[in-house]
Amino acid sequence: MGRIVLEKVKKSFGDVTVIPPLDLEINDGEFVVFVGPSGCGKSTLLRLIAGLEDVSGGKIEIDGNDATFIPPAKRGLAMVFQSYALYPHMTVRKNIAFPLRMAKLDQAEIDRRVNNAAEVLNLSDYIDRRPGQLSGGQRQRVAIGRAIVREPAAFLFDEPLSNLDAALRVGMRLEISELHKRLKTTMIYVTHDQVEAMTMADKIVVLRAGNIEQVGSPLELYRAPKNLFVAGFIGSPKMNFIEGEEAAKHGAHTIGIRPEHIEVSGDKGAWSGVVGVSEHLGSDTFFHIHETGLAETITVRADGEVDFKHGDRIHLTPREDVIHKFDANGLRIE
Amino acid sequence: MARAITTQRKVIITAAAWAVGLLIFFPIYWTILTSFKTEAQAINDPPLFFNFDWTLENYAIVQERSNYMRYLWNSVIIAGGSTLLGILVAVPAAWSMAFVPSKRTKDILLWMLSTKMLPAVGVLYPISLIFVEFNLLDTRIGLVVVLMLINLPIIVWMLYTYFREIPVDILEAARMDGASLREEILYVLTPMAIPGIASTILLNFILAWNEAFWTLNLTAAQAAPLTAFIASYSSPEGLFFAKLSAASTMAIAPILILGWFSQKQLVRGLTFGAVK
Amino acid sequence: MATQHSRSAARLMMAPAVVLLLGWMLVPLTLTLFFSFKKYLPMRGDSLERGLDWVGFDNYVRFLGSSSFWPSVQATLVIVGGVLAITVILGIFLALLLDQPFWGQGIVRILVIAPFFVMPTVSALVWKNMFMDPINGILAHLWRFFGAEPVSWLSDASVQSIILIVSWQWLPFATLILLTAIQSLDSEQLEAAEMDGAPPVKRFFYIILPHLGRAITIVILIQTIFLLSIFAEIFVTTGGAFGTRTLTYLIFQRVIDSQNIGLGSAGGVYAIILANIVAIFLMRIVGKNLDQ
Questions:
Q1: I need a surface site. Which of B22, B85, B163, C188 has the fewest CB within 10 A?
Q2: Is the minimum CB–CB distance between B21 and chain A shorter than 8 Å?
Q3: CA neighbor of B152 nearest in space, from C19, C117, C284, C8
Q4: How far is Cα A34 from Cα A45, in angstroms, rounded to an integer?
Q5: What is the pLDDT, as a whole number, of residue B272?
Q6: Interface contact A89-B169, CB threshold 8 A
Q7: What percent of chain C has pLDDT over 70?
Q8: Cis check: omega of the bond before B225, within 30 degrees of 0
Q9: How many CB pairs below 8 A link A and C?
Q10: Angle at CA of residue A330, ends A327 and A331, nearest 5°
Q11: String of b and e for A95-113 (b: at least 16 CB within 10 Å)?
Q12: Within 13 Å, how many C-alpha atoms sit on residue C148's CB side?
């Protein structure tokens, strides 16, 4: 249950094409993350799967059935919205029970499922409160509760964590991952945050301007980004790109090297530069190096204890085996 | 962020604000007060504020002379009927425009607003002609329809601005939760929109109640509401201040009370959402 | 953003309102336009059944050429302008005052807003008799108290009196809208200005007043539309005498009193054009607001 196949799915608003024809397969039980910068069409794609928007062409298949023209209510999918979209006039209990009431389940079954969900999500203490009386994290849980009671074929998450503060976000990330491990239901998760994508996904779909740039597991994307866009988008801090002479040495138009794949040293190395801003995170330190002659800034990651001052001249050595090479069109050269 | 304000400053502002408030309210206060005086006391010089014999006889005389209840009833029917009819027509329209906007939605809204600006006097004769043709002159149903049409743009606009504040997400969540369009409207949208619908009803009831162009020009005796009841006191006859006050108080009291409840919505309703 | 299904449902739900308003607008407008080109004096035997004479632009020319036309335009402008000036200026002061913290804010707000809910016929009659009556009115008592000769307000200062009555009715509206606008001003802006060393008067002129700009425009436009067609206040007080015959009232008299439908309709068309000029500006503002 929960295999979703998109065939040449296309969406345009008037003359503006938001999503050019696109194919995608999502397997049962997979945690798939759509990631990309804002405006890349990832939310629209999710809404097409949900049935909240009509496709302009193509076909959506859910569990082998053509769902292209089935209204959202009948697709058997549950969605968690960015704003949580809780019903403000209903208590937590009624919010969670709403989809079951719509499905005309009998009261005993509704109660059983709601209580169960409330327990799993630690909501039992708030069950008779209204959404307005809950904190952001609690609202988020209610929204998830409302989704899981339906036992849907797949869960759709539309940037569910973007309204939470940083600390809570990490916690909820773990909870959602945990939930996926336990339910083993297909989840499609939309985010602009590549950290969420990397930490949660079985499969990441990187989107740009409605196009799928690459599909793969987090490590595949990290190790072998197909093009400059994916290379720059996945990984934090961003990959360094170097063009010109240095790239030509590797037989490429552009080479990319991740900050964590460069070694720093006070006295010797392949490249040299002047330390600008240093960001000390404790476990790691990020140095922004200028005047390397390679690119405006080269970011490197060093151990947390390494301490160079602003203005020091230091030396850098990239790890040759993990240099990414790209041609003039920005495509990866193997 | 509240900052301590000196008591002295607050006292001065309080005095000023109350003085202005009482000055503005004085004509209403004076009318209500005078309605309880005898005719002689009503015109006493110096004016009497407390030391007079309170009496209810003006109210009795007014009721007896002009059958206040009939006018009141006409006002209630006309204002209430036109408002409810307007709501019935406007709710679906506002829903569509707020939740399924198209490229033309904005133009339609503005066009509706523009019909509100049609000066009544410019179309007085054609409307009376139509009224004569359909035997609507001096009928309540005729006025219900006209006032409904006059206020329809305001009703649509008010509802539209209220509905627009309901996040579409919530309606979509209902759709995802398996609700049909009917269930979505019944269980999710309506409960959330009730405050907005209520204040729209309130404000439009008030506007219809006070409307004094069409009600004066399209009624004679049968369907005349309170605006006409009061206008019949426009030619003086002997001592009549106390009776005029009683009649005035009876005409404005119901709406004054409703009005106080709706003051917040008034701003939004009458500025078409441009000031919130 | 929606599906095809919901779009067609929406169109259907919108139809009744659109059709009704379209009828309400087009039918009378067409008739008024039609009559404005006809000679139509029902009292002199003209009737629709026997057909009306086409007189071209005669009515338009006669309406403009009549000796009452320019005075009525003047009266209209003076009354509308006077009320606007009073309500906007006093409204700003009142809004600033009511925005301050003081005891009994809620009650004072209610007192100030009350006149708006008084029906126009009542307020006109109350003012005419109980306040402006030259013998028994409160103002006459007041004048005598100070040893002055009472004024026959509605005959000697008729236009001012009408302005006073109408301003009393509309001041609450202006105040309420301006107060709402002031309250929406981000207090951080004022605090920033205070930090920058701007004294209260400067803060008013450089921050509060510009912030109120839009609200003031809206007050002016909406009031203008309502004020252009004030009727009851004149109907029950002066009946259009003593220089208070506004354009609206003039048209009303042409149609109802002198039963000259053609002439009145031509006047009506002028009034419609005038109102539309104001309306265009209002719609611009409201329309901009919609785009947000």
A1: C188
A2: no
A3: C19
A4: 9
A5: 62
A6: no
A7: 95
A8: no
A9: 13
A10: 70
A11: bbbbbbbbeebeeeebeeb
A12: 10
Report whether pLDDT(C240) > 60. yes
**Single-letter code of the amino acid located at C217:** T
- Strand A254-257: give its sheet, edge to edge: A240-243, A254-257, A324-326, A332-333
Torsion of the alpha carbons at A159, A161, A163 and A164, rounded to the nearest 10: -170
Q: Which residue of A has its CA nearest to C2?
A: A53
Query: SS3 for A276?
Result: strand
CATH fold label, B67-270: MetI-like fold (1.10.3720)
Domain ranges of chain B: 7-59, 67-270
Share of chain A above pLDDT 90, in %: 57
Verify whether the Cβ–Cβ distance A82 to B169 is below 8 Å.
Answer: yes
Contacts of A73 in chain C (CB under 8 A): none
Distance CA C56, CA C39 (A): 9
* Placement of tokens 């009704």 in the chain: C20
**H runs (alpha helix) in B100-167:** 105-116, 124-133, 140-164
Compute the distance between CA of residue A216 and CA of residue A200 in angstroms, rounded to an integer. Answer: 13
Per-residue pLDDT tens digits for A311-334: 989 999 999 899 999 999 989 987
* The residue count for chain C: 292
Give counts: helices (H), strands (E), chain B: 14, 0
Domains and CATH numbers, chain A: 4-227 (3.40.50.300), 237-333 (2.40.50.140)
Nearest to A72 among B167, B175, B192 (CB): B175
What is the CB-side half-sphere exposure of residue A104 using CA atoms within 13 A? 2
Q: Is A307 helix (H, G, I), strand (E, B) or coil?
A: coil
- Cα–Cα distance list, A139 to A113, A125, C121 (Å): 18, 13, 53
Report pLDDT for C90. Answer: 93
Q: Tell me how many degrees the CA angle A199-A202-A204 measures, rounded to the nearest 5.
A: 80
Average pLDDT, chain C: 82
Contacts with B176 from chain A: Cβ below 8 Å: 50, 52, 72-73, 77-79, 156
C2 touching A (Cβ < 8 Å): yes
| Largest Cα span, chain A | 75
Asked if residue A318 has a cis previous peptide bond (ω within 30° of 0), the answer is no
CB-CB neighbors (< 8 A) of C8 in chain A: none
Q: Are A137 and A170 in contact (CB under 8 A)?
A: no
pLDDT tier for residue C270 given thresholds of 50, 70 and 90? confident
Q: Residues 6 or more apart from A69 whose CB is under 8 A from it?
A: none
- Residue in chain C closest to B212 (alpha carbons) equals C232
Distance in angstroms (rounded) separating the CA atoms of residues A208 and C4: 26
At position A197, the amino acid (one-letter code) is A
Q: Closest Cα to residue A102, out of B189, B190, B183, C6?
A: B183
The three-class DSSP label of residue A123 is: coil
Q: Reduced to 3 states, what is the DSSP secondary structure of residue B185?
A: helix
**C-alpha closest to that of B153 among C9, A263, C21, C96:** C21
Distance, in Å, from the CA atom of B182 to the CA atom of C25, rounded to the nearest integer, reads 32
Q: What is the dihedral of CA B166, B172, B178, B181, to 10 degrees?
A: 60
Confidence check: pLDDT of A245 > 80: yes
DSSP sequence for C11-47: HHHHHHHHHHHHHHHHHHHHHHHHHHTEE--GGGT--
On whether the CB atoms of residues A96 and A142 are closer than 8 A, the answer is yes
Characterize the bridge pairing of strands A298-303 and A271-280. unpaired
DSSP state of C151: P
Residue C191 tokens read as 């605090």
Two tokens, residue C73: 């335009």
Does this model's pTM top 0.90? My answer is no
Give the residue, B38 or B79, on which the prediction is more confident. B79
Output the six-digit token pair for C130: 């109980």
